[in-house]
Write a structure and sequence with these properties.
14 helices, 502 residues, 6-stranded parallel sheet, alpha/beta, 7-stranded mixed sheet, Rossmann fold
Length: 502
């Protein structure tokens, strides 16, 4: 393909319908066909993010999903692929990142004036990508028919209209009501938006696809649009997920006997929970996400992950008695790991003099398991550090406002160690196989469990295999020729549901 870049928008009937998965799959499938393809999401709302090189050579931040989609596309991740990132700090307010850098805060009701600047940033970024790639596969956000937000939308149909993109809508059959969701999503759109909706994809189907035949035919007749494919349900497609809804998809084999049990505290504002994806790949671990103290009693390892609201989540931790349970776990000589916000919670105190997380001057005592203090500053740290830990090379990425001051204890990559309690400000360190293996071997020795079994799974190879699996699925179960025709020719002339079809 040559000339001006083509594009496609992958929208969904709801959050976690499979937009990110389908976008990743299409990126890898097109890349394998020799097409220069890039992913794009105008606005992502997620606390899972990744550091990439910025235009000025400094670190910049994009949604984790777009970083993975860039890997799927075999393209270099960059800020244009996710120009606007909203990181929820509460139910009503989000921190805004534009082209990789902090931009300000946005309240739930602030649409017109504030979002106009965000829309301009998104449209400029898309045009930039389209000038440099053959195809740009765009991902929508939430549900395609969020009619309460349509007036100022620049992520779903607003983006499709502005860029003249054909739209494919993905529905999740596993949650039920997929035909109603697909039909209803189309019916709620105005005629000009409907004209760009060019087909449907059904995701997460279990069973004999022939049983869907009557429904697929009826949906095609009623809407005038084809179902381009039915993707089967597959285990373990959650790797690198950005959506907290996908935490429930992290399944384990109930018949397996784990060497170690890992309890990950599921904080209300959990961020970068992809840090534990590498643990979930270890065949001799059982990893559970927990919200109350009882499972900690039988756990060998407790992980406190990152959070977008360290002080608020620390209050939540105490309100549920998890602070006492974690301290007791450490007192028994069992392993505790805190990552970023979790590391800060393990320290002696947290200070927020400038009000980065809320009211200025807030202070809270930490759990006191590590001799460190945290001070929040307005300037955000965005880095890709590397070094050595536990005798092996290790790296990661840093995304935080809190600066830690470490006291007594052993140095640990990005933080501090005191016996069996570890704290690091580096996300992604467990993706390094040798380092993960060394840390788990130490945890096994502490627990009196069998060692020599960890770090054998290659995390990067597992991710690549997953991306190729996704491409295989769309090549087999999706009409890729029809998808590429949409990319080449745009949306065909199609009827609306307000008229003769009603």
């Amino acid at each position: 393909m040559t000339g001006r870049a083509r594009g496609l928008l992958v929208a969904g009937t709801s959050s976690d319908a499979g937009k990110s998965v389908v976008t990743s799959a299409l990126c890898r499938a097109m890349a394998r066909r020799g097409i220069r393809v890039a992913p794009f999401k105008a606005q992502n709302m997620s606390n899972n993010s990744m550091v990439v090189p910025g235009p000025d050579g400094q670190g910049a931040e994009i949604g984790r999903a777009q970083w993975v989609q860039a890997l799927a596309a075999r393209a270099e991740p960059e800020t244009a692929m996710n120009p606007v990132l909203l990181k929820p700090g509460s139910d009503l307010r989000s921190h805004v990142v534009v082209r990789g850098r902090p931009f300000g805060r946005l309240a739930a009701g602030e649409f017109a004036g504030e979002r106009a600047a965000l829309a301009r940033a998104a449209h400029t970024a898309l045009e930039d990508l389209r000038s440099r790639y053959d195809v740009v596969v765009c991902e929508g956000a939430g549900g395609v028919a969020e009619i309460n937000l349509r007036a100022h939308d620049y992520v779903n149909m607003g983006l499709a209209r502005a860029a003249d993109l054909p739209v494919v809508v993905v529905g999740d059959i596993d949650r039920g009501g997929v035909f109603a969701s697909l039909y209803g999503s189309l019916a709620l759109l105005d005629p000009a938006d409907q004209a760009l909706v060019s087909g449907f994809v059904i995701n997460k189907f279990r069973g004999d696809v022939s049983l869907l035949g009557p429904g697929l035919d009826a949906l095609g007749r009623m809407t005038g649009r084809p179902v381009l494919g039915v993707l089967p349900w597959q285990r373990n497609l959650w790797l690198d997920s950005e959506d907290s809804l996908a935490l429930a998809d992290r399944e384990h084999d109930p018949a397996a006997t784990p060497v170690l049990r890992v309890a990950v505290v599921q904080l209300p504002r959990i961020s970068n929970f992809t840090d534990v994806d590498a643990l979930c790949l270890e065949p001799d671990l059982r990893v559970d996400f927990v919200t109350d103290p009882r499972p900690l009693a039988s756990a060998d390892v407790v992980v406190l992950p990152g959070t977008r609201a360290t002080l608020s989540d620390l209050e939540w931790l105490r309100s549920r008695g998890l602070d006492t349970a974690i301290a007791e776990h450490a007192r028994r000589g069992r392993t505790v790991l805190g990552v970023c916000g979790g590391c800060q919670m393990l320290g002696r105190a947290i200070h927020d003099p400038e009000g980065v997380e809320g009211a200025a001057g807030r202070r809270a005592d930490g759990l006191g398991l590590l001799d460190l203090e945290t001070v929040f500053t307005r300037d955000k740290v965005l880095r890709l550090p590397s070094g050595e830990g536990l005798g092996v090379p290790v790296g990661g990425y840093e995304i935080h406002h809190g600066r830690i001051r470490a006291g007594r204890g052993e140095p640990f990559p990005g933080g501090l160690r005191d016996g069996t309690v570890f704290g690091t400000m580096w996300h992604g360190s467990l993706e390094h196989d040798a380092f993960r293996g060394a840390w788990l071997e130490a945890a096994a020795e502490t627990a009196g469990a069998e060692g020599g079994r960890f770090g054998k799974v290659g995390f990067t190879a597992a991710r690549e295999a997953r991306l190729d699996l996704l491409a295989d699925l769309v090549e087999e179960h999706l009409d890729m020729d029809a998808v590429l025709r949409l990319v080449t020719d745009g949306a065909p002339a199609l009827p609306t549901l307000r008229g003769e079809l009603r």
